[in-house]
Amino acid sequence: MKSEPMNRLAFLSGILIMITLTAFGLKLFQSPIPQNLTTWVAWAILNALLLWASRLAGNRQSWMLSAGATLGVIFVTLVLLSKGQWQWGLVETLCTIGAVVGTAIWIWLGPKRGVIAIVVAMNVAGLPNMYDTYLAPNPESWWLWAGLTLACLLAALGAEKWTVQDRLFPVVNFVFNLAMLILVFR
């Protein structure tokens, strides 16, 4: 059984990621921060699938990061949809293929392998945002990536075990969000 401080870290990670993403969604209402809608739609779907797959794979305690991310990403996606921002190209096509493949692997091979496939697909889905950030860094969004990086770190530290279903998502997304944080300042 996980210690009480570790439970708190896992819980805090979910709250932090939800607050950070909700604040970012509210910021999107006020200012034109360029974002890729395809990325956020894919993240919304994949976060919900990851939450479900993680629970089915036996993650009973450190699922808060996925839950907070799912709610926050859905909010950001709804904000972007309301603003009418949309573009489609090769990167978006690759992102969509990754999401479909990840979902298919989860359905065919079960929840543990599905967690791996969905985490990979989530990071593939993030490539359009990473590419856009590389082309046009936006230092104004540093706090988003810093908050997400910290939330992932807390979730990794607060996870019960070193298993795929407990730590893959927070560890891999810690690296992704840290890369985004570095890119916004390049």
Automatic annotation (TrEMBL):
Keywords: Membrane, Transmembrane, Transmembrane helix
Record-annotated membrane-spanning stretches: 9-28, 40-57, 64-82, 88-109, 116-136, 142-159, 168-185
Domain of life where this protein originates: Bacteria
Name assigned to this protein: Uncharacterized protein
Transmembrane in keyword set: yes
